[in-house]
Amino acid sequence: MGQKNVDDYLTEGIYGTRQTKRSERKKYLGTIRERIVIVLTKGQVMSDKGLAHLDQAMKSNKGAKLLMNGDVSHKFLKEEKALANKYNIPYTEVTNEEVDTDIGAVLAYDYAIEKEHIFIDDHADEKTIKDTEADESFLGKIKRWLS
Predict the structure, then answer these.
(1) C-alpha distance from residue 110 to each of 6, 34, 62, 63 (Å)
(2) What domain count does the chain have?
(3) Residue 68's CATH number
(4) Which of 29, 22, 31, 59 lies closest to 45 in space, CA to CA?
(5) Residue 111 three-state SS
(6) 108 burial level (CB within 10 Å; 0-12, 13-18, 19+)
(7) Total-model pTM
């Protein structure tokens, strides 16, 4: 990269500094995907479905920070804040009136970690429960016996 010229300084002064991956930053509450450990949707935050996953992620990633959507009511964010305090993880509420995102909370680092799966599957817990129930049925026992 070459030195900045007058036009670069004027552009930065008018529009602000350039950001990489602006669409990702809007979606993921100000951070980019490659830095994220785990993502909770607004629905998962409001129903507390992802708390166990968030607890595990915070336990093993104490150097991360928690970003919470400021559009979600404070009463729904109490549990997430309590977990952050439990593990001494800093948290911030991010509010952007210009962007509507379905992301409720993000646990992320300040640097890239490149984690492949960052979303929690709502149906994974239900599937595990159904599989357990199926194993307890008569056909499940026969299936287990034959395998």
Answers:
(1) 31, 10, 12, 9
(2) 1
(3) 3.30.1330.30
(4) 29
(5) coil
(6) buried
(7) 0.72
